[in-house]
User: What shape does this take?
Amino acid sequence: MQYARLLGTSFAAVLSLAVASAPTRARAGTEPIAKWCSGIKIAAFAGGPDGAPFADQVANGFKQAELDLGPTVTINFSDWDPNKILSQIKDAAAAKVDGIAAFGIAGDSATDPLIDRVFGQSGTFTSLHTALPKAQSRYASAGMGFVGAPAYKLGFALASEAFARSKLLKGEEALVWGFKSQGGERAQRTMGILDSLAKAGAKVTYQEIDAATSANPSAGTSIFVGLLAKNPKLKLIITDHGGLTANTSVLGKAAGLRPGQVFFAGFDLSPDSAKALTEGYESLIIDPQPYLMGYLSILNVCLTRKFGFSGMDIDTVGAFVDKNNLGAIAPLVESHIR
Assistant: This one.
């Protein structure tokens, strides 16, 4: 036993000496760097008009990413006009910015030649809100990603939830106010709504959102009043436009509806849509979290420009919001983060 204890002590001492005398191995990696994306110029697109809640949430995401990461971000507002956004992307490409984060509302066929030009001159392009799947499949390894809620899935989910909550019966009437005729990926959200309601057996009246209403939702008030007059048995209305969703109280009052008389469902949180929930005109909103679209699309460009990472594909779809759970995020809605 005495020998065993001495042997153990001797071995431990030798091991301790060996560890102490071993050469120190250099630690891999580097220290974190503040503003690590400094020097990168990015043209960023908020989609809608300046001051509109959805566009403001996207822009706030851009601004926070610029502050955190350090790039120079120029924000463009496009009034939801596909031709305007194409012209603005063309200008950004001509300026040879390092990266572009833009909505894909004009679709692949119109936008892809510009994306080819951007990557051809060693720039980076990524999409947000509305995907450009053909371009993304070609340029994903070169940095093109997508940050947003897949349009068809988002529309289908909202319509399915709205149908169930509204207790609409098969054959009863619903109105969908959307962008079916716009084509491309943007139309897919409306198609998801229509397919879900068709599967559920609702009788659907469809109204296309015209350019004037898309740019200024108040312009659609007379259209809505006319629709209600022609379809007095409507029990469910789904607005595929954040501005129209925010305007639900105005629309309902103009048409002479009582709060809760018709089940309204729509997209995108804003102070006005939150107010409509509180007043009882709006019943259900799905939040695709546009702030994240802004922030993470800038991060995507920075990661590619600085470190050569491939494009990220991120689904930002959030939870359903109604008057019962609105209070938990109300301060964030007021500050245009949610």
Notes: The chain has 14 helices and twelve strands. Residues 41-149+289-317 form a domain with the Rossmann fold fold (CATH 3.40.50.2300). Residues 1-24 have pLDDT under 50 and may be disordered.
